[in-house]
Amino acid sequence: MPVIVKLTPNISNILGPARAAKAGGADAVSLINTINSIMSVNLDKMAPEPVVDGKGTHGGYCGPAVKPIALNMVAEIARTMDTRGMPISGIGGITTWRDAAEFMALGSGSVQVCTAAMVYGFKIVEDMIDGLSNWMDSQGYATLDDFVGKAVPNVTDWQYLNINHDLKARINQDLCISCGRCHIACEDTSHQAITKEKDGKRYFEVVDSECVGCNLCMIACPVPECITMEAVDTDRPYANWTTHPNNPMAKAAAE
Ligand SMILES: Cc1cc2nc3c(=O)[nH]c(=O)nc-3n(C[C@H](O)[C@H](O)[C@H](O)COP(=O)(O)O)c2cc1C
Ligand code: SF4
Ligand code: SF4
After folding, report:
1. Is the pTM of this model over 0.85?
2. Which residues line ligand 2 (CB under 6 A)?
3. Is the pLDDT of residue 254 over 70?
């Protein structure tokens, strides 16, 4: 009887229970279960919702909101030396074929669906199979093994990202409705890189020398595709934070 150990995300490091499952002889791990959460507080009764005879307790967060957390935990297990290679069944917010494909690309050999099936019924699984199958055909993947885990080698720690890979925001003036949200976002909480007027009129333009490519403006813009991020050539070779002159740890290592 194969044993698949289901892992809770209510833990600071998912590798601990994954290692324990492996050491205990598990055939596979599945993750994630639900995330402990209080969704709201009833301010009249001064207790968490749903209020049960004056008291409340936490529930389990699930569905699309937990997908990013689940993907990260799956990736951690798939890429870490001593847990790598353990069969993984990915769970958490899977609603479309694309969600399933993303879990698989990060190393899940199978996936599970709970919330989406509860909301839309089992038919949603057939839709996902259709979509996944069409996408696999379009990519030339004949079997799931052709792409399961394919994104794992491209998951790294932030300090190894290329510090010389530079992006600049680009505003499509034909699509811009001059709402100003990008300006406010960049002005108040990023790098003051978007102007708000030109010749006395509202006009939103990126100042390349100030833009750090954080993409906040793109998220704030209500018009799809109006702001895009463009990679610009810096003529600088790959370098990362581990050797950067501003990194005190790098300095200490060099001394
Ligand atoms: C109403 C409900 C009941 C659940 N009961 C269980 C359970 O008994 N055992 C378990 O391992 N997971 C249980 N789960 C967690 C799901 O199996 C799944 O791990 C989690 O909801 C994340 O997937 P999802 O976003 O597709 O729902 C339950 C989830 C929901 C929403
Ligand atoms: S990418 Fe960031 S820094 Fe650049 S313009 Fe947008 S919000 Fe400002
Ligand atoms: S948020 Fe988008 S639509 Fe609004 S001013 Fe900026 S670029 Fe134009």
Report:
1. yes
2. 169, 185-186, 190-191, 193-194, 206, 211-217
3. no
Fold of 162-232: Alpha-Beta Plaits (3.30.70)
CA of 92 to the centre of ligand 1 (A): 9
In the chain, CATH 3.30.70.20 sits at 162-232
Q: Which residues of 14-46 are buried (b: 16+ CB within 10 A; e: fewer)?
A: beebbbebbeeebebbbbbbbbeeeeeeeeeee
- Closest protein CA for atom 9 of ligand 1: 33
Task: Specify the residue with its C-alpha closest to ligand 1, atom 31.
Answer: 115
Per-residue model confidence (pLDDT) at position 250:
85
Select from 173, 197, 226, 229 the residue to mutate for testing ligand 3; criterion: most ligand atoms less than 8 Å from CB: 226
Amino acid (one-letter) located at 228: T
Residue range 1-16, pLDDT digits in tens: 999 999 999 999 999 9
The closest-lying atom of ligand 2 relative to the alpha carbon of residue 229 is 1
8 Å CB contact between 194 and 214: no
Tens of pLDDT, residues 181-238:
999 999 999 999 999 999 999 999 999 999 999 999 999 999 999 999 999 998 999 9
Distance from C-alpha of 60 to C-alpha of 202, rounded to nearest angstrom: 46
